[in-house]
Write a structure and sequence with these properties.
Shape: elongated
Number of helices: 4
Distance between the termini: 21 Å
Structural class: mainly alpha
CATH class: Mainly Alpha
Helix content: 40-55%
Bound molecules: zinc ion
Order of helices and strands: HHHH
CATH architecture: Up-down Bundle
């Protein structure tokens, strides 16, 4: 059974809430990494590239990955509402209770 309007609304609400939470989580931390001035000195170009290269904070990376998923889900919800809630791999319906846990999911429990 496809999702009814109330479930669609619920999904949209959950996604927007999640997006908000994730955005706030990423905003908290300032992006600026302390750049070591010493590294800019002689012959440090190579070394600097290695050391200064932004090491993605795993937490931040996870958050931005999730944020992308949420955005993609919102887009699908908007543009392909009739297909939302179906596995992108086998086209089986994803159970509502699973969508409610993670509205951004794209695959059923067998295809994850
Ligand atoms: Zn599947």
């Amino acid at each position: 059974m496809p999702l009814d309007n109330m479930q669609m609304e619920e999904i949209r609400r959950l996604l927007q809430k999640k997006k908000q939470d994730l955005t706030e989580a990423t905003d908290k931390k300032p992006e600026k990494a302390p750049v070591k001035k010493a590294a800019a000195k002689k012959g440090a170009k190579k070394a600097a590239a290695k050391t200064v290269k932004k090491k993605p904070n795993p937490v931040q990376a996870a958050i931005s990955g999730e944020l992308r998923e949420v955005d993609a889900a919102l887009k699908r919800l908007k543009e392909q509402e009739s297909r939302f809630g179906y596995c992108e791999h086998c086209f089986m319906e994803i159970p509502w209770r699973e969508l409610a846990v993670n509205p951004a999911r794209r695959f059923c429990s067998r295809c994850v």
